[in-house]
Amino acid sequence: MDNALLFDARARVLADLAARNHATADAVSALEDAVEQRKWWAEQWPEGAQYVAGLVAQDVQDALFEQIGRWPVCRECSDDAPVHVLYIQPDLGGPDPVWVCEESGDVVAPLGGL
Question: Which are the contacts of 82, defined by CB distance < 8 A and separation ≥ 6?
């Protein structure tokens, strides 16, 4: 497993956490856990390394749901829209993961670009 892919995934998700003011100790701990788990996963399936960044983002999103609720919340839609989240597309997380609005289906930002 190329550790550079893991470092890139960590940096991109951390950038998105920071952009939405959620780079707390708990969130960073969840990120570290996700990176470690996906390292093992990628070692078992080397061809899946291109999916690691998106999968790490999804893992952190799932972990934060249990801790703080939905993250990241969409800020692109009108104020009239109900609160909704962004999700990683494609579902498997790669090879070029982007955040997509749950309501409109529009691409909001690449992973790491919130």
Answer: 103
CA–CA dist 91, 49 (Å, integer): 15
Query: 86-110 burial string, b = 16+ CB within 10 Å, else e?
Result: bbbbeeebbeebbbbbbbeeeebee
pLDDT in tens, 45-78: 988 888 999 999 999 999 999 888 889 999 988 7
- 94, pLDDT greater than 80: no
Label residue 46 exposed, middle or buried (CB < 10 Å: 0-12, 13-18, 19+). exposed
Q: Cα separation of 52 and 82, whole Å?
A: 31
Whole-number Å distance between alpha carbons of 91 and 100: 11
What region does 2 belong to: left with phi over 0, alpha with psi -120 to 50, or beta?
beta
Tokens of 88: 């990683």
Tokens 């707390």 belong to residue: 24
